[in-house]
Amino acid sequence: MDIDSFVIDENFVGKRIDVFLAEVTENSRSYIQKNISAELVKLNSKIISNCSTKLKLGDIVEIQEQELKKDIAEPENIPIDIIYQDSDLAVINKPRGMSVHPGAGRSNGTLVNAILYNIKDLSGIGGTLRPGIVHRLDMNTSGLILIAKNDKAHENLSYQFENRLIKKEYYAIVHGKIDHGMKQIIAPIARNPYNKLKMAVKDGGKYAETLFTPLDVFKSFSYVKIFPKTGRTHQIRVHLSYIGYPIMGDFLYGAPKNKYGIEVQMLHAGSIKFIHPTLKEEMKFEVECPNDMKNILEDLRNN
Fold this sequence. Notes:
Elements: E1 2-7, H1 17-25, H2 29-37, E2 41-43, E3 46-47, E4 60-65, E5 81-85, E6 89-94, H3 111-118, E7 142-148, H4 151-162, E8 167-175, E9 183-186, E10 189-191, E11 199-201, E12 209-217, E13 221-228, H5 235-242, E14 267-275, E15 282-286, H6 291-302
Parallel strand pairs: 7-14
Antiparallel strand pairs: 1-4, 2-3, 2-4, 5-6, 6-7, 8-13, 8-14, 9-12, 10-11, 12-13, 14-15
Helix pairs in contact: 1-2
């Protein structure tokens, strides 16, 4: 079993320990509560049994996570927004809060469980836990994701991702006022040496490049369009935080509390462009931001 350790900063003071661990590990709250009941969670080196324990500044939280017991994902009748589908692929608008595939502590309720029910033919390259999955989005990032329906399509789309041929555009609400014009961030990304669930800008890390431009600038926030040139884990979140514009709600990467009570990153994968594996034609799909982002933007524009 792996042990993950976290030091509580001002963003998480007063939060319940089970809620905090569910957020930072992207596991279900019920799974975290089972870990607490199994005496696998420590607070300041002492085992805790109360899931509602409130966190204080400087607390050290440790969780010894159990491995996922099931090695085969099961179909579940979960509605999904299929934007496009043919014999080779599907394009799905993933909602915020849905994990892409099963992992430790999360064996159901994922996009994989949903597509196994709603899409009968999927590539097998991803194995029994990740059938059809060519790439992923963070659990709390909404937006477009590609699904491969046969191995040939999977291999082709993977090649396009690896060679940066697939173009994606994201939208985010960030803290801070950003000057207009296209901005570029080039900073290497590696695993955070103090928290394996986080990434960080670090010398010796993998090359990472992000372009972005503000669409709207408000008193203390900006609405930005983002063009990742590479696809590192948490790249957009890490890069924007690194230059002082953390994404609203992204407490894991230093965002302060906000007046809207948002506690998940306001990040949306709004556009994807690729070459169809069989038709060899360029395809582009776009979806609007979800209602949570729309409502915040409306309020920012009116105040």
